[in-house]
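Tutorial handout. Part one gives the primary structure; part two gives the three-dimensional structure as tokens.
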Amino acid sequence: MASAATAWKTRSLSKLEEDELLDRAQRGEREAFDELVTRTSSSAMKLAVSILRDASEAEDEVQNSFWKAWQSLPRFQREAKFGTWIHRIVVNQCLMRLRSLRRAPVQSLEEPVAEGSDRVWEPSEQGPDPEQRLGREEIQELVRREVRRLPALLREPLIASALENRSLEEIAARMRLSVPAVKSRLRRARQELRNRLEKHQGRMGPATLAV
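Part two.
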């Protein structure tokens, strides 16, 4: 009977909307949180694998991320979807994993390639490591999102200046403003954008996002 009741409850939870599941989970109902985990675990795993390139390590960090989410759930303000919040935690966990791997001792590879050869193995030149690449992509997406959220009177001159490389005179003519007025709006836009971005910066620096 107990197993049947559990199965019925699981099916019942699967029909609930995310907001109601979050209400229950934030009141301490673990089954509701488990349903949220079920809905987001696949995408979280894909994200972790794309960063770490190792399924075992990715699985560890996904589990760590869900454990951290459960501990932090009472403080989750729901400013984003649960899945988006989980993805941020996964990104941060994976970045910290990469940092720990980079700090680990590395065995020397300076050994002869073949017997009788004095040439040493040399790694090929590589581009940015996964942490750097992911950090840039995360910050670029964050900047684009926050620029879109700026008031139009600040967003328009900022985009014209930073993205379209327009001169102050061109922007002033387009917006029917004086050049000093455009300068003033650009200063306000940059300060507002800076303030918005600082709210998202994680404790580990600009390559991570606050969760």
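Part three, for discussion. The longest helix spans residues 30-52. The chain has two domains: 16-102, 129-211.
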